[in-house]
Design brief:
alpha+beta; 326 residues; 10 helices; Beta-lactamase; two-stranded antiparallel sheet
């Protein structure tokens, strides 16, 4: 436990309305068996915060005229199996409304690499595209594939380009183990440190759009500020204001009650509390939120799954942390 949260590490950064000051808190150590004091240079497995960086990379290609949000992705790669699969668009993928399954569990059978990727992308639809919100890692894996095919560039390069403009200078897919915060002890892998925690991403063997990025609290704060500042990053324009509004305007409602915009959740009270905010969480214990109206924002990175994911709910901790940003 660190500051009331499970795990060994806590890194937070918060800017409350009415002040330009940023409150930074660094507590604990990168692992229970590594007593090194946590610093601002330590990188966390960002888990599903990766989806937001993938979203930004996708919208940059839309800004550049290389992609269309509402064109069927079947024109680029086959995605999904079943009624309506040919109608899936990039907008569906980025709003979890494609009908694709939540995850590709074939990694449990030993499938890996390109064979696993093909199996995952051919997943049977759980609903028709455009109608129902079904949170889907598979959808963001597909989005990453579409970005690579349409741009002729690897996802790593597309994300790095956006990150450089944001000022997210430590963001990486391949961190140095000594600077990485540990995650879970998994039965088939042992202690995971310096490698992606997500089992599917690990089995795929190369960067994917749903998980796999590592970053510092400052990297995640650079993303939050870019959203707050209408698409302008520390070193220049990252996205148009119109596309930031697509990321902050809900288009479908999840069963849990929050709104889903392109890439971001809107007013997810389960962890944002009463904040009128947009943001995202990651399974490993990461989260960020931005209140577009007040300008407040916060980043909270923990390794709650270290050494185990059992009994590690941090919803209440997150609600308390993000409460002042509204």
């Amino acid at each position: 436990m660190v500051n009331g949260a499970p795990g060994s590490a806590w890194a937070s950064l918060r800017s409350v309305p009415g002040t330009d000051a940023e409150e930074i808190v660094l507590l604990g150590s990168p692992a229970h068996d590594d007593p090194t004091p946590l610093t601002g240079e330590h990188v966390f497995d960002l888990a599903s915060l990766t989806k937001v960086f993938t979203t930004v990379a996708a919208l940059r290609l839309v800004d550049a005229g290389l992609l269309e949000l509402d064109a069927p992705v079947s024109d680029v790669i086959p995605v999904g199996t079943g009624a309506g699969a040919e109608r899936i668009t990039l907008r569906h993928l980025l709003t979890h409304s494609s009908g694709l399954p939540a995850e590709g569990g074939a990694w449990r059978t030993g499938l890996a690499g390109d064979e696993l990727r093909a199996t995952v992308l051919a997943g049977e639809l759980r609903a028709e595209p455009g109608g129902t919100h079904l949170y889907s890692d598979v959808g963001f894996i597909a989005a990453g594939e579409v970005l690579e095919q349409m741009s002729g560039r690897p996802l790593t390069a597309l994300v790095a380009e956006a990150a450089a403009l944001m000022g997210a200078d430590s963001l990486t897919w391949r961190p140095a183990t000594s600077l990485t915060v540990a995650t879970e002890v998994q039965p088939h892998r042992g202690l995971v440190r310096g490698e992606v925690h997500d089992e599917l991403a690990h089995a795929l063997g190369r960067p994917a759009g749903h998980a796999g990025l590592f970053g510092t609290v400052h990297d995640a704060a650079a993303l939050a500020r870019t959203i707050r500042d209408d698409g302008t990053g520390a070193r220049g324009r990252v996205l148009s204001g119109d596309h930031i509004r697509l990321m902050t305007t809900p288009v479908v409602t999840a069963d849990a009650g929050y709104g889903q915009a392109i890439g971001l959740r809107v007013r997810d009270a389960a962890w944002m509390g009463e904040a009128d905010a947009v943001g995202h969480t990651g399974f490993t214990g990461t989260a960020f939120a931005v209140d577009p109206t007040s300008g407040g924002y916060g980043v909270l990175l923990t390794n709650r799954v270290h050494p185990s994911r059992e009994d590690t709910d941090v919803s209440a901790v997150r609600r308390e942390f993000f409460r002042p940003i509204g």
